[in-house]
Amino acid sequence: MKLNDEEKAMLAGEAGQVAKLAIEHQLQVGRFFGADDFVPVTQAHIMADTESLGQAGVVWLEKLADANEGGVRIPTITDPRGTDFVHANDLGQADWMLELERRAIEAFVRLGVSMTDTCINYQTILAATRGEHVAFGDTGVVIYSNSVSGARSNFEGGPSALSAGITGRTPRYGYHLDSHRQATLRIRADWTPKTLDDWGSLGAIVGRHAGNYWHVPVVEGLARAPTSDELKHFGAAMASFGSTALFHLVGITPEASRLADVGGDKLPITHRVTHDDVIALKRSYAVDSSVDVVVFSAPQLSLYELRDLADLCKGKRFKRPLLAVTSPQVKPDCDRFGYTDAIESAGGTVLAGMCFYQSYAREMSEAKGWKRLATNSAKLVNILGGYGYVPMLATMQACVQAAETGELQ
Amino acid sequence: MSNASYTSRHAMGKRVIGQALVASDGLSARYDLNRLKGVFSRPTHKLVGQNYIDKILVLDTAKGGVATAWMLHEMRSRNMCPSAIVFNTVNTILAQGAALGDVTMLAGFDIDITTKIPHGAMVEVDPEKRSIRVLSPEEYPTFSIASGDTARVHGPR
Question: Cβ–Cβ of A32/B65 closer than 8 Å?
């Protein structure tokens, strides 16, 4: 890779040992993918829950912080943490988990990282703009920022996103390059989703067709422009099921005003997605009508998802735990507008700054006896099978009813 | 005498020898593995129940989210890690995780590598040559050693 003088100085250790370590890591990844050089980035977003980090990852962070060399040089924020400390006991989380979280947070703060603890930063913190090169590290954040905002990021895992925050750059490969942003797969939607779980299901199906990180689906046929929350579920599910980092919607997303803008006119339509396909996907998860817990998470809920949930909770009394997870930025408004009270008066809990699957999901299942889980998040059902859950996908309304009756209709 | 060798476009890490676990399926450490037990745990995964520790995983593609970038490092710290991962196509996360976790990786083949390597075969992965090669029985290691200054050799478990 070609390095400029500043990058050569970092590699030589002239900017400190932490910057040297960071750029060495970036060079290893950049060379693996054949990057020619680095591209400056303006923001970084780090996924670093302690279930992923483990003891080893926290010690690694602490060593970087102990160097006391100044930390990040660009705005660098965090994905959800592994707990909401206020409700950790309700979640069955052990003291060692909380202690590990505290140590990770303390190390990040010493590195200059802003603990935003959110996967919806594009709705709450600082949305990336078209053409802006960034180093984002939650797949839902990346796919939304690339596709809806027209920004440029690869999936940057925690070590790479932190490295980008420290060096202010990332290797120029993948979705930083024009050549990778053209469509490779053309899909026709013969039906336009209505509910958030529908949008997630459509994203899941498109992601399955895409199949790997390097495919860029272009979707045509949608009857209307989706809202931000709908695109959030659509993208997050697509990224989860397909490891997909970029999609185009003809006439909707910024790089695909016309099909030809992304080369879609040269591609045959290889897949058509119908309402029946969406129903079939949901049915594939509907294996047991009994429900132990209801979870709204992945991605964190916006203020208006919480408003809709609060409306559905009014006058109800839940037999099963209902968890609604949002960001620390949204939670105060959720409280102020009375949504938290409406949800919690029915027996639910509003959590902030965490995400269900990033919060020791296996241990929560064992501690709380939660196995059969209902959610309206297609992303969540895709993840939780490996953690021993039986996840089921349904509308927000049906999930709330399941919390009330214990049965998913 | 050696068997066919297959060359990838991308490679990193040290030369390793070990037993291949092969499937036309993907890999995400968060979605697919019980990392405490060292086994594939996702019920629908083609390798469900199989122990991956010190094995050479030969799979179709990297899946899912960003957690694997940390998790390979965490798995390595407990010596409960695959010794190498070989993909038809990789995503950025698995490559970043391999870099931090010191896991040998090959990716990008002109053929479907999961159809060329027999499940359970002893193979050599050599990042310097960007190659994976099925070993003949006479080439099998008889004990686990650190060979020279770079190679890691793992016998089948």
Answer: no
